Each structure stands twice: as structure tokens, then as C-alpha cells.
Automatic annotation (TrEMBL):
Keyword rRNA processing (UniProt): no
High-level lineage: Bacteria, Pseudomonadati, Pseudomonadota, Gammaproteobacteria, Alteromonadales
Entry annotated with the keyword Magnesium: no
Pfam entry (one): Kelch_KLHDC2_KLHL20_DRC7
Source organism of this protein record: Pseudidiomarina homiensis
Domain of life of the native organism: Bacteria
Name of the protein described by the UniProt record: Galactose oxidase
Record field: transmembrane: none
InterPro entries xref list: Kelch-typ_b-propeller (IPR015915), Kelch_domain_containing_8 (IPR051746)
Sorted UniProt keywords: Kelch repeat, Repeat
């Protein structure tokens, strides 16, 4: 196709303007092209170029311009590898490290604790064990103790909701235990002041299986008791967070 090289005709500029105007520039362009055709014999598309073709050209340029914008490279994720693959575990951080408790894998329930050092990016299996459990919750008390509540356990060939609170000392690496009244799996716990609130979760009944619970209990550090509070409006497996503490 022959190109019309007459001065004063700028198709690119017209397409830019076209995106903000109506048919009026189209008629002006046709008149301009026809006048140059009569003078120079240039027959580019003065009579054949339609409104739809101009719209297609404009749309193509707009799309091409948007697609050509460079994207910022995605940041690289830091890699932390556990010694033991697992799911259903619980994890909590103190002011030095991240602790991973229990869980399960293809070989069954796990009863170890892994400590992740965020500085060296290494994980170490600690020389202490907890009761094998999954779907528990864990809370750091702000000092040197981590409390583990509820979850699933497996004993003598039977699954059960674990009725034991385990207390792990991050300094001595020892575990102590106390009774958990109203145990639940998939509960959520958070510390607020001198208490840990354990919220929701599921209980187990031999006839009906697992059932979500509206229970809210509070573990008091001073008397080491778990007291029942007002129930949630709705029973649920949930997540809870403390704000402002």
C-alpha cells in the first residue's frame, strides 16, 4: 500500500485525539486526505478508511501501550526448612525464636518440638517431647513459658480430643502438664493481661462425632485455673487475636 507523505498529516496524533472526540475529526481527516489526493495523487485510505477501522487502530495502540509497561520483580521469599514435614501443627514465637509443636505426617502423630532461629534460618529438633497431638493452639506468656491447649490425640488405637494443657519452658526445655477441662480441637487462644483466652473449637462425641463449640474459657496465670466465660454467639472453629497488649 502506498504511503501518503504529505506534510501536516499525522495519523498517530489523530488517533490520540480520536480517543477524546467524536466523528468530527474523522470527517476533517477525510476532507484533508481528499484534498491532498487531488493535489498529489496520493490514494492511501482517504475514502476507504472507516470509523470502525480508526477505532480498531486506536484500541490496538491503547492495549499495546498498557501491555508494554514493565512489571516490578517479585521479592524472593526466605526459605526455612523443618526437619520433619508435618501438618496440623501449631507454632508460636517468643522474642528469640519460632517454636513448632506436634502435628502429623504419613507416619502418624508427631510429639517433637522444632525451634527455628530466624537469624541463622535453621531449625533444630529439641531434646524434649510433648504428647503427640495436632490441631492444638499455643500461646507465649511473654516470659519463658509456652502453653499448648487441646487438639487431637491418638491413644490405644482411638482418636480423642486431648484433655491436657502442656507448659513448655523455653529456658529449661522442660514440659509440665495440667488438666484441661472442656477440651477442644481447632480452638484458638490469645493472651491478654494475666489470662489466656481459649475460644471456640470442636468437641467429640462418640455418637455424633466432632461438633463445633461456642465455649470461651480463660486460663489464669496466678491460680493456674481454666475458667468458663460467656459463650460465643455462634459455635465455630475459629481464630482469635489480642489487640493492644
Amino acid at each position: 500500500m502506498a504511503k501518503c507523505k504529505q506534510p501536516g498529516i499525522d495519523l498517530q496524533l489523530f488517533v490520540y485525539n480520536f480517543s477524546f472526540t467524536t466523528e468530527r475529526p474523522v470527517r476533517n481527516l477525510k476532507q484533508l486526505m481528499e484534498s491532498h489526493t487531488n493535489q498529489r495523487g496520493c490514494t492511501m485510505f482517504a475514502a476507504a478508511l472507516s470509523f470502525k477501522r480508526l477505532f480498531a487502530v486506536a484500541l490496538t495502540l491503547v492495549v499495546a501501550g498498557c501491555a508494554s509497561a514493565p512489571e516490578a520483580p517479585a521479592p524472593k521469599a526466605e526459605s526455612f526448612t523443618l526437619k520433619h514435614a508435618r501438618f496440623g501443627h501449631t507454632a508460636v514465637a517468643d522474642d528469640e525464636a519460632i517454636y513448632v509443636f506436634g502435628g502429623t505426617n504419613e507416619r502418624g502423630f508427631i510429639g517433637n518440638i522444632e525451634r527455628i532461629d530466624p537469624v541463622t534460618k535453621t531449625s533444630t529438633v529439641l531434646p524434649v517431647r510433648i504428647m503427640p497431638r495436632r490441631y492444638a493452639s499455643a500461646v507465649w506468656d511473654g516470659g519463658e513459658l509456652i502453653y499448648i491447649f487441646g487438639g487431637d490425640g491418638f491413644q490405644q488405637g482411638n482418636y480423642h480430643v486431648e484433655p491436657t494443657i502442656e507448659i513448655f519452658n523455653t529456658r529449661t526445655r522442660k514440659v509440665s502438664r495440667t488438666k484441661m477441662h472442656l477440651p477442644r480441637r481447632l480452638n484458638s487462644a490469645a493472651r491478654l493481661g494475666e489470662q489466656i483466652y481459649v475460644v471456640g473449637g470442636s468437641t467429640f462425641d462418640a455418637d455424633s462425632g466432632f461438633r463445633t463449640s461456642p465455649l470461651v474459657t480463660a486460663y489464669n496465670f496466678n491460680n493456674e485455673q481454666l475458667n468458663r466465660l460467656a459463650d460465643l454467639p455462634d459455635a465455630r472453629d475459629t481464630q482469635v487475636f489480642a489487640v493492644g497488649e
